[in-house]
Amino acid sequence: MAEAHGAGGADVVVTGLAAIAGTGWDLAALGERTAAGDPAFTPVTRFDAGRYRTDLAAQLPGDPVLADELVAILDRACAQAGLGADERVVSPLLVAVHGDPAVARLPESDRTGPGAIADAIARRAGLGPAPRAYMTACVAASTAVADAATMISHGRAHRVVVAAGYLVEQDNFALFDAGRSLATDGHVRPFSAGRQGMLLGDGVAAVVLESAEEAARRGATPVARIAGWGRAGDAHHITQPDPEGGGMTRAVTAALRKAGRVPADIGYINAHGTGTAQSDAAEAAALHRALGTEAARIPVSSSKSVHGHTLQAGGLLELAVTVHALRTGRLPVNAGYAGPDESLGLNLVLGRPWEREVDHALTVNSAFGGANTALVVARV
Predict the structure, then answer these.
(1) How far, in Å, CA of 334 to CA of 257, rounded?
(2) Are the CB atoms for 234 and 251 separated by under 8 Å?
(3) Nearest alpha carbon to residue 310 among 97, 161, 118
(4) Exposed/middle/buried for residue 340 (C-beta within 10 Å: 0-12, 13-18, 19+)
(5) Within its chain, how far is the Cα of 179 from the centroid?
(6) What is the pLDDT of residues 23-75, one digit of tens each?
(7) Helix-helix angle 277-291:246-259, to 10 degrees
(8) For residue 229, which of 147, 335, 137, 300 has the smallest C-alpha distance?
(9) Of the chain's two ends, which shows fewer C-beta atoms within 10 Å, N or C?
C-alpha cells in the first residue's frame, strides 16, 4: 500500500543542510564532484580488502568515527539554519544509522540497539526529546525525512532535524561481496550497458526541516522545499526488486499527488541507480509507469556513480545532491556510462553537467524487502 498525505498543511522547508562523503569534507565538494561525474573510488584503507572481488570504495581519508562525524555534521546544519541552543533543545532528532552502537563507535554507551545511538547523538548535539532511530536499510534516511515532513505538515512539530551516516566497514563490504553485488571493474555504471554492480561509500549528512511559517518567524532563509513525499512496499522478495517496479511506482505517484504536481512538472530525477542489472531495470520500469511519456524526457542520473552506495545514509546524501543541483542549475552527470541499454529508455545526463533551471526534482530510493520512497524537492 502506498502512503501519501492529503493536500493542505504547513509547507516544509529546508533551512540547514550539510554533508560529507568520499568526495570530500563538505557539501560543495559533494555537489561539484557529482555534477562533474568525477568518481571518488579508491582502494580501501581501513581493513584488508585483498580477499574480496574488488578493493574499491569511496572513502574519506583516515579512520573517522561515525558518532563524532554525525555530531559535527549536525552542528554545521544547525548553524546554517541559525539555531541557538534553546531552539535545538526543543527540536526532535531523527537519525538513520546501522543499529549497533559499536559500529557508530559509542564506547560510552551502556545500552544496545539503535535507541542508544539516537539518544547519544541527540545528547551530544544538544537536540530535543525522544530521538528516533531508523534502520530500514537504503530507505532509512528518506523515510526519516518523510516522517519529519509529515510531523511538520500536520502541525505536530515546528521543526525536526534529520541526520544519517554510514562509513565503509568490513562487515557490509564482505556481505555485498559475497552476494556478488560489487562492481569488479571498479566503476558504478547506473542504467548503462555493461553495468556490473555497486561500490560502497562514506556518507554523513544532516538537514533541518521546519514549517515555512516558523522559518519566517525566525528570519531563516530556506534553501529548498520538501513539496511531496511517498512511501510504498512491493513485498516481492527479500532482496530482489519487483521487476515491474510496483512499489516505486506507487511511491512516486503518492509524492507527486502530495506535491500537487504532474510528471511534466519534474525537471530532474536523482535516481536510486545502484548499477546492478535487476535493480536498475526495475527502477526504470517504475519511472515509466509512474511518469508515463515524461520518463523518456526528464533528465536522470544516479549520484551513486560518484559517491557510491552509502546504505542507511543514501536517501539524505542524495537529497543533498538534489538540493545542490536545484540551487546551482547544474544537473549531475551519470558517471561510468559505457553505452546505452536500450531496454531502459531513460534520458541520462551524460558527458558534462546539464545547465538547467529546474523548479521541481524527484529523488527516489529502494531497499531490501521491497521498501521504496520518493521525495519531490522544490527550488525556492
Answers:
(1) 27
(2) no
(3) 97
(4) middle
(5) 23
(6) 999 999 999 999 999 999 999 999 999 999 999 999 999 999 999 999 999 99
(7) 40
(8) 147
(9) N
Distance in angstroms between the alpha carbons of the first and the last residue of the chain:
31
Cα 303 to Cα 308: distance, rounded to the nearest angstrom: 8
- CA atoms of 315 and 360, how far apart (whole Å): 17
Domains of the chain with CATH codes: 11-187+197-218 (3.40.47.10), 226-378 (3.40.47.10)
pTM of full prediction above 0.90: yes
Of residues 290, 252, 283, 289, the one with CA closest to residue 348: 283
Find, among 33, 39, 2, the residue nearest to 19 by Cα: 33
Q: Among residues 149, 119, 346, 118, which one has the least CA distance to residue 245? A: 346
Q: Kindly report, residue by residue over 151-183, the tens digit of the pLDDT.
A: 999 999 999 999 999 999 999 999 999 999 999
> What confidence category does residue 5 fall into, taking pLDDT thresholds of 50, 70 and 90?
very low
Q: Any idea which residues carry the catalytic annotation?
A: 138, 272, 309
